[in-house]
Every structure is written in C-alpha cells, then in structure tokens.
Amino acid sequence: MSNQQLKEAGLKVTLPRLKILNLLEQSSERHLSAEDVYKLLLAAGEDVGLATVYRVLTQFESAGLVVRHNFEEGHAIFELTSEHHHDHMVCVDTNQVIEFVNKEIEDLQHKIAEEHGYELIDHNLVLYVRKKH
Amino acid sequence: MSNQQLKEAGLKVTLPRLKILNLLEQSSERHLSAEDVYKLLLAAGEDVGLATVYRVLTQFESAGLVVRHNFEEGHAIFELTSEHHHDHMVCVDTNQVIEFVNKEIEDLQHKIAEEHGYELIDHNLVLYVRKKH
DNA sequence: CTAATTGCAAAAGCTTTGCAGCGCA
DNA sequence: TGCGCTGCAAAGCTTTTGCAATTAG
Q1: In angstroms, rounded to a whole number, what is the distance separating the alpha carbons of residues B32 and B12?
Q2: Residue B61 vs residues A4, A119, B87, B116: alpha-carbon distances, Å
Q3: Does A1 score more than 90 pLDDT?
Q4: Does B101 touch chain A (CB under 8 A)?
Q5: Is the CB of A10 under 7 A from strand D?
Q6: A60: which of A49, A66, B20, B91 fits an S-S bond (Cβ 3.0–4.6 Å)?
C-alpha cells in the first residue's frame, strides 16, 4: 500500500507523507492544490502544516508519484501520476477539470516537433471550455 | 501607428502605454514577462513604474492587443496578438520559443470539447522539445 | 476642468526557507 | 542515537491595490 510506495520512492515513511498520499488516493477529486490538500487534512482532523504539504507534494513530484500542473495562474494543481497519459479540459465557469485521451493529438505533436527538427520531450495541453446547454 | 491602436482599443493615449506598446512591437523577442518589459524600459532610459507595466499589460490583454501565457510557473509571459493563431514549442535546452500553426490540432481540439458536451473557449498547448542533431 | 492614469509603497497570494524540536530507522 | 522530517514563522516572488499627484482630452 502507501507505505510501500513511499519506500520505493526512497522517502521515509512518516505520518504527514502517509496522510497526504492516502488523501490523494482516496479523494473524489483527482486534481488538488496544495491549499486544497491542507484544508482537506484539517477538515479530516489531521494536523499537518501547510509548509509540509508543499514540501511533501514537491518530493512526490520528484519521485514521480505526482504530477504538477499550471492550469491556472496563481497556484499549482497536483494529481497522482496515472497509468495512462491524458490531457485536461478546464471548465472556465466551474473550474472543474476533465481528463481526456486522444491519440491523434499525441501523434500530431510528435509529428510537428519532428517537422521542425526537434524531438518531443514533454507537452502541456489544456482546453478551456464551457458547458453547452 | 501605436497611437491609433490605443485609441481603437478605447484607451487614452498616454506616454507609458505608448512606450510599452512600442517596445512590444520593436523587441526582437516576442515573448516577454512584465519584469522583462520593465527592465527593458529602464534600460532604454524610460521611466515607467512596474505597477504601471502590470496594469497596462492587463489592459492590453483585455483590449485584445496582447495575449498572456503561463508557460512556466511563477510568472506570466506576454506576446503581441498576432494575426494568425499559433501554438508554441519551447526548447528545453535553450529556452528558445518557436511558434507553429497546425490546423489539424485546432480542429481536433474543437472536436474533443464537443464530444464531451463543451464549447472550446481557449486552449494552451506547449511542446517541450530538444533539437535533434 | 474633470476624470483617467501614474508612481510609490504597501499589501496580497502562493510558495519556500531557517531553525529548533520531534520522530523514524 | 543520529539524521531526516515537521511546524511555525518569517521571508521571497510575482502581481495587485490604495492614494495623492499628474496628465490627457
């Protein structure tokens, strides 16, 4: 379980790390800001400092357990690394984040980089959308 | 010239606005942060406050003269609105920014949003690439 | 002349860091 | 026990805001 994941990541198994990892795994919302994580922990009666949340999330990112996004200006959003790559849609009205997978777009990106004499290392694609009524 | 663009944007023609717009039009680097603009103005002997740079860039954005990007966390990047929409490639080694246009990707994005019941308002696509040798 | 704009400094929001004490291995 | 980790508070950064003075129309 979480215990093992932390060890594999080369991180000491501490209470704050376990709490944060468990929260990320159990939360119904996959995309959380550091502040979100902090508030959820407080609400759950867990006593963890905000600075620790930031430090732990950054460590998780380095360990590959978590991905950091910059969907919106002002604050980062963290998400557990998922098995399959996906991109994101963000609703401009509700800030809801929707994941999607599209192989054509992935292929096109590689093709575009190649056409310019480059190798694709990574990419960031966010669609800002509004619900159709 | 710039004078006219400001009027058309419904903005009073003031010295700071002219200086900033001229700088954006004449700079060899199309992609600048507020701090970049501020420092370039200072270097050019122009006396404009940083707060004014932020305010003016935000007004330019509202007026559609400029586009704000969040390529990296920490600070926004501004670019004069260009006639044709384009996306960006950033070389991970040199930080060089390359613009590209790809209609297929644009169309796919609309299609994906539609398929999920949404209307595409905007998007952000950045390819992080490395020069092939 | 009047209202908009500017510059400064202070404040705001997110994130990082220094340091003393606590806790895992 | 020793080193890493945590919490708190303070500091750092980018960006915004309040306010008096300045400027455009």
Answers
A1: 23
A2: 48, 32, 17, 29
A3: no
A4: no
A5: no
A6: A66
